Amino acid sequence: MRILQASTSYSVGFGISSISTRPKSFTQRHSTIAEGQALDKPVQTTRKFSEQHTLKKGDVVKEGTSVVLEKKDFAVPRRKAMALIFSSLVLSNYELPKVAYAQSTEFREYIDTFDGYSFLYPRNWIQVRGAGADIFFRDPLVLDENLSMNISSPSSSAYKSVEDLGPPEKAGKGVLRQYLTEFMSTRLGVRRESSILSTSSRVADDGKLYYEVEVNIKSYANNNELAVMPQDRVARLEWDRRYLSVLGVENNRLYELRIQTPEKTFADEESDIRAIMDSFRVNKIEV
């Protein structure tokens, strides 16, 4: 019997210039858990409503060949759910989804044993295939909110530690540079504004060093880029997003967990985003 552990800590990461997009067998990439398999110890995640919830033995579900560990502690009891519905009648339509979301967030763990990494993600997020990343999940309601995993090519990288990128500040500049390269546009009248919000490092409970980087990028576009007169070319904000990355090194490869969210919703979603970042781990591949 294989013992799996969902882990917790906080982190942020780095853009990678050389990303492997080689196809691989789906059944080869994901581990499976037999029914009734247990976890070796509880896992804690700090939630929005200032309570500690623990992933207990038996909180395991299996979807196809993917391993997902389900946090059932976030389920709202029926009596409390009814009370919430009736009390929410006095709230506006705008406030009600916020209350429901704060009370019912659940997480699953995604484990890739082929490439050697794992992380938690919100249970209601859906996987998007063909997105160009190793794995890609998206919020079905807020399409600008998503996470993805990028990994350097095993044939062109020989990383020993995330410190090979230099200090966190230097890594942060690399992150921002990579994002701006990817978002480069050939449209007329498009302008980007960017800034590094924070860079840091931490040693997780697996003993490995991780870098965290947060950047903000705004995109502006002229409403009439072909207008002759400058006053007719008014720049308007297209989008304003926060990008959070977690960097780790294992198997001589650089791993980057990326999270994207609209800046206007970041404050409401920050607790969940931090939990995802905190859960990211790189693991040794068993040959």
How would the blueprint of this fold be written?
Layout: H1 26-29, E1 43-46, E2 52-55, E3 60-63, E4 66-69, H2 78-87, H3 95-104, E5 107-112, E6 117-122, E7 126-127, E8 135-138, E9 146-151, H4 168-182, E10 190-203, E11 209-222, E12 235-250, E13 253-262, H5 263-279, E14 281-282
Antiparallel strand pairs: 1-2, 3-4, 5-6, 6-14, 7-8, 8-9, 9-13, 10-11, 11-12, 12-13
What does this structure look like?
There is one protein chain. The chain is of the alpha+beta class. The protein has a domain at 107-282: 3-Layer(aba) Sandwich (Protein Transport Mog1p, Chain A), CATH 3.40.1000. It contains five helices and 14 strands. The chain has helices at residues 26-29, 78-87, 95-104, 168-182, 263-279, and strands at residues 43-46, 52-55, 60-63, 66-69, 107-112, 117-122, 126-127, 135-138, 146-151, 190-203, 209-222, 235-250, 253-262, 281-282. The strands form four sheets. Strands 7-8-9-13-12-11-10 form a seven-stranded antiparallel sheet, sandwiched between helices. A three-stranded antiparallel sheet has the order 5-6-14. The protein is globular and about 65 Å long. The two termini are 19 Å apart. This is Psbp domain-containing protein 1, chloroplastic. Residues 106-282 form the PsbP C-terminal domain. GO terms for molecular function: calcium ion binding. It is found in: Plastid, Chloroplast thylakoid membrane. Pfam families: PsbP (PF01789).
